[in-house]
Amino acid sequence: MDRLTIAGSLMGLVSIGLNWFNFKPSRLESGLGQTIMGSAGWVFAVLLFTLWMLCLLLSFRRQLAFSVMLGLASNAVLIASFTIISVGASNLIKEGPESARASPALGMWLTFLACYIVIFSAVRRVSGHRFLKYLMMYMGPAALIFFIISGSFDNLSLMVEFAAQRSRFYQEFLNHVYLVAVSVALGSFLGICLGILAAINRKIKNMVFFITNITQTIPSLALFGILMVPLSALSFRFEILREMGIRGIGNTPAIIALVIYSLLPVVRNTYTSIKQIDPAVIDAAKGMGMNRFQVFKRVQVPLSVPIVMEGIRIASVQSVGLAVVATLIGAGGLGWFIFQGLGQAAHDMVIFGTIPIIALALFTDRIMRLIISWLAQNKSKGGAQ
Fold first, then answer.
1. Which of 95, 134, 213, 382 is at 20 to 30 A from 341, Cα to Cα?
2. Cα 196 to Cα 147: distance, rounded to the nearest angstrom
3. pTM, full prediction
4. Position 161 in a domain
């Protein structure tokens, strides 16, 4: 019996009876909840109920065939949910005024969470079969991309918001990626250097970890505010800094703050990766005639890289989220939509800004994990040779 799958399936069954849409006469007005039966029809409700019951029954068997069926059934739930969203939003918009909006409600989000839980469980059960694992993992995202490209979600409030803010979205998305990429690159370089120095010298280690631990506890908004004062003073004092774009607001204080926050995971992992190397390996390298630099380059660096990259992964995902606050000091980014939505009481805009941030964080995490896995495999092959 798979308790995780049972919990996800029961959650999915509960979501059928909840409101899937929040139908609003206009963007800013409060809406009326709509269930699957009230928006898409009872046929879709029965279909979803049948698929969730199938997932629940399959959770009592752990054999490979049942696990594959579970993965396919849970992805079928996801595809059926996308169809319900498309049909339900279209039906509601047709019945309402021209300014009407069909927003996602609790039932829809709960269904997605339940699908994630069940698919995760199914993938874990077939982890030894790579093709089946990737089939289950990417079937749902591929279907989502198809529905978006085909225009099936055009009547959903989030897509209406995207159509109205398309050019601004691309601008802020690229700006968000720029802030994260530059800050992580600078933070990784500084963090690796400081981590190496900390591993070499105990006094430097105490000072480095004291400073990085202290800065990590400062709230992000407070740190942005602290940086604005000296940067503003310097930009007024030196005209060349203003010409370079260095001011108290904008990208400069945002990048500096994100660099500071990215230091701790990189420094800690760099220090740990160097210290965890077996001294016998170092002695063997010295016995082969290598000098200190050659030992560092040929032995310590290759063995340390996967752990250092793990620190960079943590810093990257962390920076994706922290860059949201940079909007408040004029740096832009996807946080612009969140704070604009909060200021206008437009929930759709808040969600519209939140979803890409989550997707970017997950994408960044996945890419970094693949890189780390590849580096670890190369390390194992090198050790075997």
1. 95
2. 49
3. 0.84
4. no
What's the domain count of the chain?
A: 2
Q: Which DSSP state fits 103?
A: E
Element (H or E) spanning 327, and its range? none
273 and 311 both lie in a single domain: yes
Amino acid at site 255: I
Q: What does the alpha-carbon distance between residue 52 and residue 49 come to, in Å, rounded to a whole number?
A: 5
Q: What percent of the chain has pLDDT over 70?
A: 97
Residue 171's domain spans which residues? 166-384
The string of DSSP letters for 127-179 reads: TT-HHHHHHHHHHHHHHHHHHHHTTTTTTBHHHHHHHHSHHHHHHHHHHHHHH
Distance of alpha carbon 226 from alpha carbon 140, whole angstroms: 44
CA dist., res. 55 & res. 122, Å (int): 10
CA distance 102 to 306: 46
Over the stretch 22-40, which tens digit does the pLDDT of each residue have?
Answer: 888 877 777 788 999 988 8
- 97 contacts: CB under 8 Å, gap ≥ 6: 25, 26
Q: How far apart are the first and last CA of the chain?
A: 43
Report the SS3 class of residue 22: strand
Same-domain check for residues 230 and 338: yes
Rounded to the nearest 5 percent, the helix, strand and coil shares of the chain are 80, 5, 15
How far, in Å, CA of 148 to CA of 381, rounded?
A: 42
